[in-house]
Amino acid sequence: MIDYTSIEEKWQKAWSDAKLFEAEPNEKKAIMITAALPYVNSPQHIGHLRTYSTADFHARYMRMKGYNVLFPMAFHATGTPIISFAKRLRNNDPDILEDFRAFKISEDDIKKMTDPTYIVSYFSNEIKEGMKKAGFSIDWRRQFTTTDPIFSKMVEWQFFKLKDKGLLSQGSHPVGWCPNENNAVGQHDTRHDVQPEIDTMTVIKFREPESNIVFGCATYRPETIYGVTNLFVNEKSTYVVAKVGNERYYIAKDSAAILKYQMSIEIESELKGSDLVGKKAVNPVTNETVVVLPGFFVKPDIGTGVVMSVPSHAPFDYAALERLKASGYQLPAMDYRKIIEIEPLGTGVSIGRSLSDVNVGDAKVEHPEIPALAYLEILHTNPDAIDDMLEFATKLLYREESHWGIMVYGKYKGLKEPEAREQVKKDMMASGDAIELYVLSNEEPVYCRCGARVVVKFVENQWFINYGDAAWKEQARGVFSAIDIVPALMRPAFEKTIDWINLRATERAEGLGTKFPFNPNHIIESLSDSVIYMSFYTISHVLNANNVKPEQLKPEFFDYLFNDMGDADSVAKATGLDAAAVKRCKESIDYWYVNTSRHSGPDLIANHLTMYIFAHVALMAKRFLPKQIVVNGFVLYEGEKMSKSLGNIVPLIDGIKRFGADPLRFVEVAGSSLGTDTDFSPKGVESVKAGIEYIYNAIEDLYKLQSGELMHIDYWLYSKLHSKIKRATKLLDSFELKEAYTDIFYNSIIELKWYLERGGNNKIVVQEFLEGIALMLAPVMPHVAEELWHMLNKESFAATERWPVEDDSLISQGTEKLESMIISTIEDARKAIALTSKIDSNKGKKPIEARIILAAEWKLDAFNELALKKSMQAVIEESRFKNNKEAVAKFLQQFAKNAQSLIELPKISSADMLKSFSEAVPYLSGKLGVKVTIESETASKSQRASRAMPDKPSIDILYG
RNA sequence: GCAGGGAUGGCGGAGUCUGGUCAAACGCGCAAGGCUUAGGACCUUGUGCCUUAGGGCUGCGAGAGUUCAAAUCUCUCUCCCUGCACCA
């Protein structure tokens, strides 16, 4: 058993003592690799390990490739969560106490955590400890925290700069709002952590004749205005007459209470829903007068509590009218006008086509002229259906009409339904017949943690970063096009985010962080303050070493640093900083920040990573713009998302102790393709450990091997090693980590086993093979690789060795092909024995010999010519085949019809083939249990000789 | 709804960019055999369908198309996952 912990500690100490990862500018080419800094409100778990292990792989790999590599780390503490944790701990919130106890945090520490700064220091230390135990090649001298006053100065500079450039703006914006606490609520402020989803509805004004009071009908489908037959209210609810703007509305009392946060509403009087029933109202588009009726499904706290009824296209409306009729209600004459037609498919199918046949079955549509009814029919139901069924029919109808619907009535006849929806809405807004409404579109009402129901509010005079600025966006697009996004698959996600990102609120009333310069009562929102922080690594250790005071970091310093304005002496003068220190900062950023690689998770594409691009575009000299962004997928635990509720979160430090840092890193980094989620399981770790152990043993057993002349199998192992180096290097350069490491690790083990099983016995060959493997493992299994390297009698650090370079002369496709021919010959011979033994003439006899007949040399030549020329005729006509025309033609005939798809085989001489197969005779006969003889086709007397193919010998099984 | 990603065998998951060497890597599961006091571990073989000499057929969410050739390219649809902002 390998003791991972002791190996890890040994090498971590050795690296640290040698200051291996403390990077300073030198004559080598630089690369600075950063990974999203951790948020210090909880311990890290093994899921967090993936991004950092990937970044550390990158750092270690580039180091071995000869780069001067800087891999720094810092801690993120700004924003609301830490403050809110402290507050919840002060209030003895049982949920959070339970969480923190589950993290094995002592009661004493928990007590101290009512102070947010203690939370920050506690978890920074904890996380740093974990990263050290994981063996990351981080230069810790540069560590800082985003709440450091010295760091705040850079953030301040950033915001002055943005304002100067006109990229900040002020305005109002709809947000989820708690009326009780008077605070904006985001996902983490709500019960069950639901994200308040804000959507817009259109409120269409149906005016009551005479009084001119407005029935404000809230709808998602304003285009159905042409099919309105009546209005619905809930007769059991309370309604009010309210002044909204300069008009008076009938709206449900509950709705009024919600809507007052986004529009001025003055309630004048109350009335019952039933009082509204029977009133008349005028359709503002068609000028038809319709009546108000009771609708069973109308909810007083959704929209306005008043809806328009379109029975032809809304199953609920149709059902409500049918139920009224059934209850004996006297309805006026109504025109169930079909205003949207679905374009039929070629087969005549129109509605229900998005359902599978299973669902539709033999349903017959009897009322195609009333789509709302037709959709119920196709679902085998009717207007008496339960609400869920009506809901389903509504969704189905809405989906299909949105896809294939064409307006067949009204001003926008002929237009596709979604376009008509926009046009109708635009027209009505312009003529004052409609207004827009913000609603929470969550299926269930959203509640704040305090218990109050969340509403939509307009907050006024809020500061925003205006990512919508056209010129800025354009520049960002241009810069983005030159950034290397890894994997390239993620590119569209970035492009869309750049297009879509617009105003972003950038100040908050509460939280840790930098004071917002234009409203000192607020702090800068914590995603906005961490978009250029990575540049701070280049100078943080210099600032620390020189005891720089925050107030010395005046704008002149950052202007010089980031935009080359002024010079070191003038900056020193303006700031009181030491000129040498200023110079050192400048040299550092000029050296490191020109070639950067940023690592992160996919969740940050839509915010942090895109904002990172924008911020650099706005604030930094051209040469400091981002060069590469690497995005890795998440980590699952045995196929499931890691979550508190599933109880499957493994804290990082526990995980390292339990699984070993290297096996853990290997599984996460090399276990699946970079961009896809990876599945972690203890079982996966076991198989990695088994592999590591095999390699250990192989090194220990090296002494058993001999040396001597190189055989076919030795050349094969060399070829495998060097083609592996070549392939893996190429793959790793493009971050195809899984593919590369499957080959480097798993395949190498298989190859080594095969080599030994085939009788390979050359110490030098195996030693070289293992050295190559050890070095190539170093970026992901740094401790194990170091250990292996030293077991192979090396004195240097694997971590700083040069990455292996392939020797092309040792790569032989022919040799590898020969070996695979030998392998498949075993299988073929087995089958041949099984089948021939059933032949009557062989009954009662035993196979005694497998005669393996190797194809004549000209066959490979002819085959390859055919693969190249694709024409049998052309091959036969060639002079070298002239003497042998008949045989060549007979041989090639079998490939003729597939000539187009033939692929050339590697060139192997008859002599090599004969030699390699002959060397394999002991192995083959051992495997097959019969005598094996090798002969060439030309020398063979066997009837089957002519069947030999260039890549497949003929096999003749002899019985006796 | 909008945006991004996906759908492959009993399962997980390669292959898709760059169409042909793909009945489909690798792993799990399952079956038979070996080893073992037994179990586990390990090793060998098999694991879509048909086939008495290494062969053939069918297949990669559904449907259509391009091509000599499609898991791979194009179009349409369905379903699943993720994100949608003041929240790190």
What this model shows, in words?
This protein is α/β, with parallel strands linked by helices and 960 residues long. The chain is built from 34 helices and 30 strands. The strands form eight sheets. A six-stranded mixed sheet has the order 10-8-9-6-5-16. Helix 25 runs antiparallel to helix 26 (737-757) and helix 27 runs antiparallel to helix 28 (782-791). The two termini are 51 Å apart. The model has no long low-confidence stretch (mean pLDDT 88). The structure holds one RNA strand of 88 nucleotides.
Biggest sheet statistics: 6 strands, mixed
How much helix, percentage-wise, in residues? 40-55%
Q: Sum up the overall morphology in one term.
A: globular
What Rg is obtained from the alpha carbons, in whole angstroms? 38 Å
The class by helix and strand makeup works out as alpha/beta
Main attributes?
960 residues; alpha/beta; six-stranded mixed β-sheet; five-stranded parallel β-sheet; 34 helices; 30 strands; 43% helix; 16% strand; globular; RNA-binding
List the helices and strands and how they pair.
Elements: H1 4-17, E1 30-35, H2 49-64, E2 68-70, H3 81-90, H4 94-102, H5 107-112, H6 116-134, H7 149-164, E3 168-178, E4 183-184, E5 198-207, E6 214-219, E7 230-233, E8 238-244, E9 247-252, H8 253-259, E10 265-272, H9 273-276, E11 280-282, E12 289-294, E13 306-309, H10 315-326, E14 340-342, H11 357-360, H12 371-378, H13 387-404, E15 405-407, H14 417-430, E16 434-440, E17 455-466, H15 470-482, E18 484-486, H16 491-500, E19 503-505, E20 507-508, E21 515-516, E22 519-524, H17 537-545, H18 555-563, H19 568-575, H20 579-592, E23 596-600, H21 605-619, E24 628-631, E25 635-637, E26 640-641, H22 652-659, H23 661-670, E27 678-680, H24 682-700, H25 712-733, H26 737-757, H27 763-777, H28 782-791, H29 813-836, E28 847-854, H30 857-869, H31 872-876, H32 885-896, H33 910-919, H34 921-928, E29 931-936, E30 954-959
Parallel strand pairs: 1-2, 1-23, 6-9, 7-12, 18-24, 23-24, 25-27, 28-29
Antiparallel strand pairs: 3-4, 3-17, 5-6, 5-16, 7-13, 8-9, 8-10, 11-12, 14-15, 17-19, 20-22, 21-22, 25-26, 28-30
Helix pairs in contact: 1-28, 12-13, 15-21, 16-21, 17-20, 18-20, 19-20, 22-23, 23-24, 25-26, 25-27, 25-29, 26-27, 27-28, 30-32
The chain binds one RNA strand of 88 nucleotides through strand 3, helix 16, strand 19, strand 20 and helix 21.
